[in-house]
Amino acid sequence: MSALFNFQSLLMVILLMICTSTYVRAVAPRLVDKNKEGFLGLFFMSARIGERLSPYVALACVAMAVTILAQ
């Protein structure tokens, strides 16, 4: 099933995008910071969310892992 039609898969894709964007911005900030608008701006916004809400993102990742392991 596509990630667009399964809510749990959609949440997992969004969490992975946030975590990956935050990591890439920490390692190579120029890659993310130069694209603040347009489609690639989604990665910039995801990195901002990951930086500012990191405890909540971490809790969401742990919760997602528990639900996947419980299935």
TrEMBL record:
Signal peptide location in the record?
Answer: 1-26
Q: Which residues cross the membrane?
A: 53-70
**How the protein sits in the membrane?**
Single-pass type I membrane protein
Query: Know the name of this protein?
Result: Protein kish
Query: What is the native source organism of this protein?
Result: Rhizopogon vinicolor AM-OR11-026
Q: Which compartments does it reside in?
A: Golgi apparatus membrane
Similarity comment text for this entry:
Belongs to the KISH family.
Instruction: Outline what the protein does.
Output: Involved in the early part of the secretory pathway.
Q: What is its main location?
A: Golgi
* Keyword set includes Signal: yes
InterPro entries named among the record's database cross-references: KISH_domain (IPR051523), Ksh1 (IPR009653)
Record keywords: Kinase included?
no
The alphabetized UniProt keywords are: Golgi apparatus, Membrane, Signal, Transmembrane, Transmembrane helix
* Any one GO CC term of the record: Golgi membrane
